[in-house]
Please model this.
Amino acid sequence: MDSSAYNFKRCKLCREIAAEPAYDLGDSTIYVCRNCDFHFLSQLDCLSEKTTEEGQLNETSRRYIESRMDENSPLLQNRLNFVKRQLDLSQCKTLDIGAGLGQFQLLLNGCGAKVKGIEPSSLRRAYALEKFAVNLHSELVDHDYWQTGFVQYFDLITLWDVIEHVDFPRETLESAFKLLKPGGMLFLDTPSREVLSYQLSQQLYRFSAGKISLFLPSFYSTVRYGHKQIFTQQQLSGLIESCGLGIVFSTDSDTNKLFSSHKIILAGRKTEPTPAETKPSTVRH
Ligand SMILES: [Zn+2]
Model:
């Protein structure tokens, strides 16, 4: 399937045929759901093994990756500290979805966790292997590799800056949920739509009859792995809960201001196994 095969009137959050094109960004359109007010772009990556093959790692791609690499290290440490406050990482079976260069996996390994990582970009996987000796998986979380061999396997799943990038966030989280043990925890963060720059841009777009979109284009991107949806806190909390997780931490409860107000951070715990779930995997890993 490519983007043209998907009916964007079908809301990617509530699944109702209730979304309408609302903001024209030139190369794409932001759809808004009349039922749940979800905002998402008329763009899908439709990843497959063919489309994610980006050729060999070379000097140009290495330099590009390295030029952006250090930007995230304090953030990665903050995320690690946050996770460590919630659970003991020693022997913790962990899946890091959207693992990038494997740096978070390295930090988790350093705490005694047993970590697997998923990264769709073949260049990033190649770099992670070359630089950090981290072997990341290309299979996405909904792939049979995970959904048959790792059901109720993980104690911890992390999706740092991932859910805004995937084609179908609800399906991604439902797939991740199946891989969590009862009592297992899921952590994620993502940009928030409830920031002044977004709201101001919406107002200006309306007042200018669509002539000025201001910062809206900076929230989304049509390039591969670009941002395809921007959540509100309530929408993301609702989605997490509807997947079967109880919210343990949310940005709303972040009274100590551990995180930037531009982001939504959520931690959820899988409470009860649902009858529809299959039995734990008996495959040995
Ligand atoms: Zn909706």
The mean pLDDT is 91. Residues 11, 13-14, 16, 18, 33, 35-36, 38 surround zinc ion (CB under 6 Å).
